[in-house]
Amino acid sequence: IWTVFTVMLIGWVVFASLSTSSEIFSDHMFAFKTGFHFENYVKAWKTQKVSVFFMNSLMYTVISCTLIVVIAAPAAYVLSRFRFKGNMLLQNMFAAGLGIPLIMVIMPLFGLVSQLHLTNNRILIIFLYTAMNIPFGVFYLSAFFRNLSPSYEEAASIDGCNPIAAFWIIIFPLAQPGIVTVSIFNFITVWNEYFMSLIFANNDRVKPVAVGLYSMIDAMKYTGDWAGMFAAVIIVFLPTFVLYLFLSEKIIAGITAGGVKG
Question: What is the pTM (predicted TM-score) of this model?
Answer without folding.
Answer: 0.83
